[in-house]
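Input sequence (224 aa), recorded before submission:
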Amino acid sequence: MIEIIPSILSADFARLAEEIARVERGGATMLHLDVMDGHFVDNLTIGPPVVESVRKATKSHLDVHLMIENPGRYAADFVHAGANSVLVHYEACRHLDGVLELIKKEGAMAGVVLCPATPVSVLEDVLEVADYVLLMSVNPGFGGQRLIPYVLDKVRKLAGMRRAKKLRLPIEIDGGVHLDNLTDVVRAGCDWVVTGSAIFHSADPENTVREMQRIAAGANAVTC
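Predicted structure, token format:
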């Protein structure tokens, strides 16, 4: 099953609990939370207190994406705040395997993120340690960008690596995914699809989640 994961970065934070409830009524069971420190990326967003507040408002899986420097120092704080899975950037980790093991020891799934220009080959020796991989399809920092087409080739390469190693780790994608390109994204090999603006900036977020799930299911049926 393909997971459509709304990114709350594009939600109305003044009505965040209501926004979350709307996408959950549409069938979403996972939420994506972007943490940015103003250093690793230019934007500045949320910290553990907001994750803790979101945790109180929902039972959905919280997928926390750390776009921060020195993520190993803070990863446990986000698990304690309620994250079910925590993503760290390959580009920000000096000791990636150690940070992944730390996250898992704290009780959450541990994921690796690659920026668009980072080749998937860098993950060759760490795929067995990671629980999942996120490929950024825009340069991280801001929502509303266009999907970078060559990232779908990276998805295909990573899917091939996964098959060769006989692994079952999900491949996640984040950035510029909308109704018109969702089919291509799923057929490339993505299992978890993060999308923010396409959902929360639509006229009916609840129905948009439902429609994206329908499109993804149809695309996945063709690839299976």
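Checked by second reader. The helical segments are 16-25, 48-57, 75-81, 96-105, 151-165, 182-188, 197-200, 205-223.
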